[in-house]
Specification:
Chain lengths: 314, 314
């Protein structure tokens, strides 16, 4: 379930006019921007951008970028983008800066449905005139490259059939590789990057039943270099995205100084999807409501915007 | 240019009725089947199958399969399929039988446009409840697997921009790998499987200008194990599909006993696309018209059907 609160009825033209006043008037009216954009779903934001473009011959993103600043600007800008295009931007920034590249690429590859991942690949090409795998492969090396490129180019079967025999044999293959510390074993990459999510779930369950320990825990027990961490992230994203995002939020908030990039990423990308469920998991694990934790670690317009996306009533 | 001759006006229902008579009457009327299906394009065949299904509650493919036989049956059956579905069948047969797997997978991966390749991947999933990369990865190993999976999962940028600097540096990378006989070098696979076709063309041209020999010739000069052959095929398919298909036809016909599978594959898959151009290349290289060579090597209904697809007037 989503946290975003958006009105069933809205007028794109009125919103565009109100936003124009907010960015072009005497001083920027951040509150108005938050109260409009923070309450519009992807389809509505798209209509608002189109209306704004038609009225003022300018992309709404331009004044948002120039009039706002810092984490608030980044959050509003990313939120306003079309979701697939936003993921393309996130992927490109991660690849170019080589920061968080594993996490961002793995999230996009392993959490999205096959069709959603494809939409991101399309959006990436439209925006950057390259394929995402092309840029990713050119900016990474070795085993990590093999894993990430295989994951991002996957177009998994999306059906719900389970082949129990296969789950059995591939749970063994995974365990043998982990036992032998052959983490970069081609078979691990093959299985994680080609099997359907339903099939993988069955394989991971079989692994846990056979070994008495989950594959993700087993992986980390054996130490954790970058490649193992990436594998671990992929398995978590494939297996239980909500639990995974809870952990990302927890780490982002716990860190001295707060990891705003991760915080913004999770809230902006999940607000229209499953942020309500992630909030629940967060509360169970931390005994503190997510809103409260976010409010404590952030401030000003950035805080107000994140809390709005988190479903706070105005 | 295509060789297929199909009427602008046709009636799917009439065709379906005529085909019904041809397969269900006293003795099968192969000539009628050839004269109808051999003159209908993909859209028309689709309509005929739909009309047949509606009239007789049966897929037209069923009687075609049961009433026809041998190479003729295979050719008519594959021709009647929707093109993306046909490629899915070709890929699956190649993967399962491990025959011609390199050629078929590389053709589909490197000759199709990114969207066409995607359509084949979708058709494959619909038909087999697996992804093509999943089956391919499970049935191959080692370097060949790396290459084929990377090619079949590609969703290349389809634009026409060329980055000359990149072509320069990647021509060098390719040459260094070939010079060192490091054919399985990850960089070769990365470049071939991620760069756009336009960019690759520029890279191959730069290679030829720098080295005085084309990359495909250079590859074969260094000996030819299976992996090198697969690389060679991929480069030819990316670079000049018509020349590549001419060679496939030449080899299929020259072989003692004729390679009907390859012959059928090229004619059936290219008749609505560029078979006229391939015929021209064939004539230039062999001084014998392709129709004549095919007629000499085949017989009966199979021969009549292939010649019809090759554009022979009735």
């Amino acid at each position: 379930m989503a946290t975003l609160v958006s009105p069933p009825n809205f007028c794109a033209k009125e919103d565009a006019e109100a936003l124009r006043k907010s960015v072009k008037g005497w001083g920027t009216n951040e509150k108005a921007i938050i109260s409009i954009l923070g309450h519009r779903n992807a389809g509505q934001r798209k209509e608002i951008r189109a209306a704004y473009e038609q009225l003022y011959q300018e992309d709404l993103l331009k004044p948002l970028e120039s009039e706002l600043s810092g984490d608030f600007e980044k959050a509003v800008y990313r939120w306003t983008l079309d979701p697939a295009d936003r993921d393309a931007v996130l992927a490109n920034v991660a690849i170019k800066k080589s920061t968080d590249v594993y996490n961002v690429i793995i999230e996009i590859s392993c959490i999205h449905s096959p069709e959603e991942l494809l939409a991101v690949r399309r959006a990436y090409q439209l925006r950057y005139k390259h394929s995402v795998e092309e840029d990713l492969a050119a900016h990474t090396t070795g085993d990590i490259r093999k894993l990430l490129v295989a994951l991002v180019t996957a177009y998994r079967y999306d059906g719900h059939e389970i082949n129990a025999k296969l789950a059995n044999s591939e749970a063994d293959i995974l365990h043998d590789a982990i036992k032998d510390k052959a983490f970069n074993h081609e078979e691990i990459i093959r299985i994680l990057s080609t099997r359907s999510k339903t099939q993988l779930m069955a394989t991971f369950n079989k692994y846990r039943d056979d070994q008495g320990i989950s594959i993700s825990k087993n992986l980390l027990e054996e130490g954790a270099n970058d490649f193992q961490k990436a594998l671990h992230t992929a398995i978590r994203c494939l297996n239980d995205p909500k639990k995974y995002f809870e952990k990302v939020l927890r780490n982002a908030i716990k860190r001295v100084g707060t990891d705003e990039d991760a915080l913004t990423r999770v809230i902006v990308t999940r607000a229209e999807r499953d942020l309500r469920d992630i909030k629940e998991v967060y509360y169970k694990k931390n005994s503190v409501p997510l809103e409260q934790a976010v409010a404590k670690d952030t401030s000003g317009d950035y805080k107000a915007f994140l809390l709005t996306l988190l479903g706070k009533e105005d």
